[in-house]
Design brief:
Length: 239
Protein backbone atom coordinates (compact mmCIF):
# COMPACT_ATOMS: atom_id res chain seq x y z
CA UNK A 1 0.00 0.00 0.00
CA UNK A 2 2.65 2.44 0.99
CA UNK A 3 4.82 1.53 -2.02
CA UNK A 4 1.79 2.01 -4.22
CA UNK A 5 1.09 5.42 -2.70
CA UNK A 6 4.70 6.43 -3.14
CA UNK A 7 4.59 5.44 -6.83
CA UNK A 8 1.35 7.36 -7.32
CA UNK A 9 2.82 10.49 -5.70
CA UNK A 10 6.01 10.13 -7.75
CA UNK A 11 3.99 9.90 -10.96
CA UNK A 12 1.78 12.87 -10.16
CA UNK A 13 4.74 14.94 -9.02
CA UNK A 14 6.62 14.22 -12.25
CA UNK A 15 3.56 15.23 -14.28
CA UNK A 16 3.23 18.54 -12.44
CA UNK A 17 6.96 19.21 -12.81
CA UNK A 18 6.57 18.60 -16.56
CA UNK A 19 3.67 21.04 -16.70
CA UNK A 20 5.75 23.66 -14.89
CA UNK A 21 8.72 23.08 -17.21
CA UNK A 22 6.49 23.47 -20.29
CA UNK A 23 4.83 26.58 -18.89
CA UNK A 24 8.22 28.12 -18.11
CA UNK A 25 9.53 27.28 -21.58
CA UNK A 26 6.42 28.83 -23.17
CA UNK A 27 6.90 31.97 -21.08
CA UNK A 28 10.64 32.17 -21.74
CA UNK A 29 11.36 31.74 -18.05
CA UNK A 30 13.82 29.48 -16.27
CA UNK A 31 12.19 26.69 -14.25
CA UNK A 32 14.53 27.67 -11.44
CA UNK A 33 12.59 30.89 -10.95
CA UNK A 34 9.55 28.90 -9.87
CA UNK A 35 9.14 27.09 -6.55
CA UNK A 36 6.60 24.30 -6.34
CA UNK A 37 4.82 24.17 -2.99
CA UNK A 38 2.97 20.89 -2.56
CA UNK A 39 -0.20 21.61 -0.58
CA UNK A 40 -0.64 18.61 1.72
CA UNK A 41 -3.67 19.74 3.74
CA UNK A 42 -6.01 16.85 4.61
CA UNK A 43 -3.30 14.32 3.76
CA UNK A 44 -1.24 12.41 6.34
CA UNK A 45 2.36 12.94 7.45
CA UNK A 46 3.24 9.64 5.71
CA UNK A 47 2.46 11.31 2.36
CA UNK A 48 4.70 14.23 3.25
CA UNK A 49 7.46 11.76 4.17
CA UNK A 50 7.16 10.19 0.68
CA UNK A 51 7.25 13.64 -0.91
CA UNK A 52 10.37 14.63 1.03
CA UNK A 53 11.98 11.43 -0.12
CA UNK A 54 11.03 12.33 -3.70
CA UNK A 55 12.87 15.63 -3.36
CA UNK A 56 10.06 17.99 -2.36
CA UNK A 57 11.19 20.63 0.13
CA UNK A 58 8.24 23.03 0.23
CA UNK A 59 4.86 21.99 1.59
CA UNK A 60 1.71 24.05 2.13
CA UNK A 61 -0.86 23.73 4.90
CA UNK A 62 -3.97 25.72 5.66
CA UNK A 63 -5.23 24.70 9.11
CA UNK A 64 -3.18 25.40 12.20
CA UNK A 65 -4.01 22.39 14.33
CA UNK A 66 -3.56 19.90 11.53
CA UNK A 67 -0.35 21.53 10.31
CA UNK A 68 1.35 21.74 13.71
CA UNK A 69 0.56 18.10 14.52
CA UNK A 70 1.73 16.97 11.07
CA UNK A 71 5.08 18.73 11.33
CA UNK A 72 5.65 17.16 14.77
CA UNK A 73 4.68 13.72 13.47
CA UNK A 74 6.96 14.15 10.49
CA UNK A 75 9.88 14.90 12.77
CA UNK A 76 9.15 11.62 14.57
CA UNK A 77 8.82 9.74 11.25
CA UNK A 78 11.91 11.08 9.52
CA UNK A 79 14.01 12.14 12.49
CA UNK A 80 14.77 15.42 10.81
CA UNK A 81 12.73 18.21 9.27
CA UNK A 82 15.52 20.74 8.86
CA UNK A 83 15.21 20.86 5.08
CA UNK A 84 11.44 21.17 5.13
CA UNK A 85 9.98 24.59 4.33
CA UNK A 86 6.46 24.92 5.70
CA UNK A 87 4.17 27.43 3.98
CA UNK A 88 0.97 28.44 5.75
CA UNK A 89 -1.42 29.28 2.91
CA UNK A 90 -4.84 29.36 4.62
CA UNK A 91 -6.75 32.11 6.28
CA UNK A 92 -5.34 32.83 9.68
CA UNK A 93 -7.04 34.06 12.84
CA UNK A 94 -5.00 36.34 15.04
CA UNK A 95 -5.28 33.97 18.00
CA UNK A 96 -3.56 31.23 15.97
CA UNK A 97 -0.64 33.41 14.91
CA UNK A 98 1.61 32.41 17.83
CA UNK A 99 1.02 28.73 17.14
CA UNK A 100 1.69 29.05 13.39
CA UNK A 101 4.89 30.99 14.00
CA UNK A 102 6.32 27.96 15.82
CA UNK A 103 6.43 25.64 12.79
CA UNK A 104 5.80 27.75 9.67
CA UNK A 105 8.58 29.31 7.64
CA UNK A 106 6.36 31.38 5.33
CA UNK A 107 2.86 32.78 5.89
CA UNK A 108 1.07 33.61 2.61
CA UNK A 109 -2.11 35.07 4.04
CA UNK A 110 -1.25 38.31 5.82
CA UNK A 111 -4.04 40.77 5.06
CA UNK A 112 -4.10 43.17 7.99
CA UNK A 113 -1.68 44.95 10.26
CA UNK A 114 -2.97 43.31 13.43
CA UNK A 115 -2.25 39.86 12.03
CA UNK A 116 1.27 40.94 11.10
CA UNK A 117 1.96 42.21 14.63
CA UNK A 118 0.55 39.00 16.14
CA UNK A 119 2.93 36.98 13.93
CA UNK A 120 5.76 39.29 14.98
CA UNK A 121 5.08 38.56 18.65
CA UNK A 122 4.91 34.80 18.02
CA UNK A 123 8.07 34.73 15.91
CA UNK A 124 9.95 36.81 18.50
CA UNK A 125 8.88 34.42 21.24
CA UNK A 126 10.14 31.42 19.23
CA UNK A 127 13.24 33.37 18.22
CA UNK A 128 12.54 32.87 14.53
CA UNK A 129 12.18 34.98 11.39
CA UNK A 130 9.00 34.47 9.37
CA UNK A 131 8.73 35.30 5.68
CA UNK A 132 5.33 36.74 4.85
CA UNK A 133 3.28 37.63 1.79
CA UNK A 134 0.41 40.08 1.56
CA UNK A 135 -2.70 38.24 0.39
CA UNK A 136 -4.50 40.18 -2.32
CA UNK A 137 -8.20 39.77 -3.08
CA UNK A 138 -8.58 40.30 -6.83
CA UNK A 139 -12.32 39.80 -6.93
CA UNK A 140 -14.05 43.00 -8.06
CA UNK A 141 -16.85 41.91 -5.76
CA UNK A 142 -14.86 40.85 -2.67
CA UNK A 143 -16.11 38.27 -0.21
CA UNK A 144 -14.99 39.34 3.31
CA UNK A 145 -14.86 35.68 4.41
CA UNK A 146 -12.26 34.74 1.86
CA UNK A 147 -9.40 36.88 3.11
CA UNK A 148 -7.08 39.23 1.31
CA UNK A 149 -6.89 42.99 0.90
CA UNK A 150 -7.92 44.91 -2.18
CA UNK A 151 -5.08 45.92 -4.52
CA UNK A 152 -5.18 49.51 -3.26
CA UNK A 153 -4.60 48.47 0.36
CA UNK A 154 -1.53 46.31 -0.25
CA UNK A 155 0.82 49.21 0.24
CA UNK A 156 -0.45 50.04 3.74
CA UNK A 157 -0.23 46.43 4.95
CA UNK A 158 3.26 46.13 3.46
CA UNK A 159 4.39 49.32 5.20
CA UNK A 160 3.23 47.91 8.53
CA UNK A 161 5.14 44.66 7.93
CA UNK A 162 8.48 46.26 7.08
CA UNK A 163 8.52 48.00 10.45
CA UNK A 164 8.64 44.62 12.24
CA UNK A 165 11.80 42.75 13.28
CA UNK A 166 10.86 39.06 13.09
CA UNK A 167 8.58 39.21 10.07
CA UNK A 168 10.06 39.77 6.62
CA UNK A 169 8.01 41.04 3.68
CA UNK A 170 8.60 38.85 0.61
CA UNK A 171 5.79 39.69 -1.81
CA UNK A 172 2.18 38.98 -2.66
CA UNK A 173 -0.16 36.01 -2.82
CA UNK A 174 -3.54 35.50 -4.39
CA UNK A 175 -6.14 32.90 -5.27
CA UNK A 176 -7.84 33.49 -8.62
CA UNK A 177 -11.46 34.51 -7.93
CA UNK A 178 -13.94 31.73 -8.68
CA UNK A 179 -15.78 31.74 -12.01
CA UNK A 180 -13.47 34.29 -13.55
CA UNK A 181 -10.66 34.17 -16.04
CA UNK A 182 -7.54 33.38 -13.98
CA UNK A 183 -5.32 35.04 -16.60
CA UNK A 184 -6.96 38.43 -15.97
CA UNK A 185 -6.56 37.99 -12.22
CA UNK A 186 -2.91 36.96 -12.50
CA UNK A 187 -2.18 39.87 -14.84
CA UNK A 188 -3.63 42.21 -12.23
CA UNK A 189 -1.57 40.52 -9.52
CA UNK A 190 1.57 41.09 -11.61
CA UNK A 191 0.74 44.81 -11.64
CA UNK A 192 0.20 44.84 -7.89
CA UNK A 193 3.54 43.05 -7.46
CA UNK A 194 5.37 45.54 -9.69
CA UNK A 195 3.99 48.44 -7.68
CA UNK A 196 4.99 46.77 -4.39
CA UNK A 197 8.50 46.10 -5.70
CA UNK A 198 8.76 49.80 -6.49
CA UNK A 199 8.24 50.44 -2.78
CA UNK A 200 10.12 47.42 -1.38
CA UNK A 201 12.70 46.04 -3.77
CA UNK A 202 13.03 42.63 -2.10
CA UNK A 203 9.30 41.89 -2.01
CA UNK A 204 9.55 39.98 -5.29
CA UNK A 205 7.65 36.77 -4.63
CA UNK A 206 4.37 36.15 -6.43
CA UNK A 207 2.47 33.20 -4.96
CA UNK A 208 -0.22 32.29 -7.48
CA UNK A 209 -1.44 29.29 -9.38
CA UNK A 210 -2.91 26.00 -8.19
CA UNK A 211 -3.62 22.63 -9.82
CA UNK A 212 -6.04 24.05 -12.37
CA UNK A 213 -4.38 27.30 -13.37
CA UNK A 214 -0.64 26.97 -12.81
CA UNK A 215 0.21 27.54 -16.50
CA UNK A 216 -1.53 30.89 -16.48
CA UNK A 217 0.19 31.87 -13.22
CA UNK A 218 3.62 31.01 -14.66
CA UNK A 219 2.82 33.06 -17.77
CA UNK A 220 2.13 36.03 -15.48
CA UNK A 221 5.28 35.81 -13.42
CA UNK A 222 4.38 33.56 -10.49
CA UNK A 223 7.44 32.60 -8.43
CA UNK A 224 5.59 30.19 -6.14
CA UNK A 225 2.90 27.70 -7.17
CA UNK A 226 0.63 26.03 -4.61
CA UNK A 227 -0.41 22.65 -5.95
CA UNK A 228 -2.51 20.14 -4.01
CA UNK A 229 -5.01 18.00 -5.92
CA UNK A 230 -2.85 17.38 -9.00
CA UNK A 231 -0.25 15.69 -6.80
CA UNK A 232 -2.11 14.22 -3.83
CA UNK A 233 -5.50 13.52 -5.39
CA UNK A 234 -8.84 14.96 -4.38
CA UNK A 235 -9.16 15.98 -0.77
CA UNK A 236 -11.54 14.04 1.49
CA UNK A 237 -13.97 16.96 1.75
CA UNK A 238 -14.31 17.01 -2.04
CA UNK A 239 -15.10 13.32 -2.42
C1 LIG B 1 -5.85 24.09 -1.02
C2 LIG B 1 -5.15 25.27 -1.52
C3 LIG B 1 -4.36 25.19 -2.68
C4 LIG B 1 -4.21 23.93 -3.52
O1 LIG B 1 -5.28 23.86 -4.41
P1 LIG B 1 -5.41 22.68 -5.50
O2 LIG B 1 -6.50 23.15 -6.38
O3 LIG B 1 -5.74 21.44 -4.74
O4 LIG B 1 -4.11 22.57 -6.20
C5 LIG B 1 -3.69 26.34 -3.08
N1 LIG B 1 -3.79 27.50 -2.39
C6 LIG B 1 -4.53 27.61 -1.28
C7 LIG B 1 -4.62 28.92 -0.59
C8 LIG B 1 -5.24 26.51 -0.82
O5 LIG B 1 -6.00 26.63 0.29
Amino acid sequence: MTEQRRAELADNLARVQDRIASACAAAGRSAEEVTLIVVTKFFPASDVAHLLDLGVRDIGESRDQEAGAKVDELRDLTGDTDELVVHFVGQLQRNKAASVSRYADVVHSVDRERLATALERGAARHDRILDVLVQVDLDPDPDPDRGGVGPDDVSAVAAAIVGLDHVRLRGVMSVAPPKQDPAAAFARLAEVSARLRGEHRDASWISAGMSGDLESAVAHGATHLRVGTAILGSRPSHR
